[in-house]
Amino acid sequence: MLTLEMTEKWLRELGRVYAEQKEYLTRLDSEIGDADHGINMNRGFSAVCAELDKQSPSSISAALKSTAFVLIRTVGGASGPLYGSFFLDFSKALDGKDTAESADVAAAFQAGLEAIKKRGKAHVGDKTMLDALVPAVEKMEVLAGEGKDIPTMLGGAVEAAEAGLASTIEMVAKKGRASYLGERSKGHQDPGATSSYYLLKAALETWK
Questions:
Q1: Where does the DhaL domain lie (predicted)?
Q2: What is the structure's pLDDT at 184?
Q3: What is the reported pTM?
């Protein structure tokens, strides 16, 4: 069962993870992008943690909605609008809930995923964050439908995301700055798919 306390732990863990992985994500982005993804994610989630320190949210939805607005305000490039849209629609799916079961969490991830699709207009196979998120959310929905608990559901999702992430290495980018490289984008791991994998892994670590 997901609670407000667990939600806050997830957001703070994301702050720690993106600080720890800042240089790695930036190095991945330097190979096919603007060399700022790690910097941007670290800046955004540092600001999220600072907001949590300043004022405790009143609900799960409020915590996630605040996260969305902070990311949109502080994260540069495409990541701010994409992750901001994800957390905003994620929050809407859990509005009014004091706790959330696995089916609620899966539905919230699905809502966030649809927001990214709508804003980014990308598809699986385009070498983007969707290559990690789509298989992960699909796995969540299957496991939630089988009545699995949140840790089991997220464990399956993280495995699916990791496989999706690995698949981006041999893809040719069709979206974003990496698409300008054409065939030269092949052989490089997508930084957005990597940060999405970290987002899911952090949820597993803090919600198990």
A1: 5-205
A2: 79
A3: 0.95
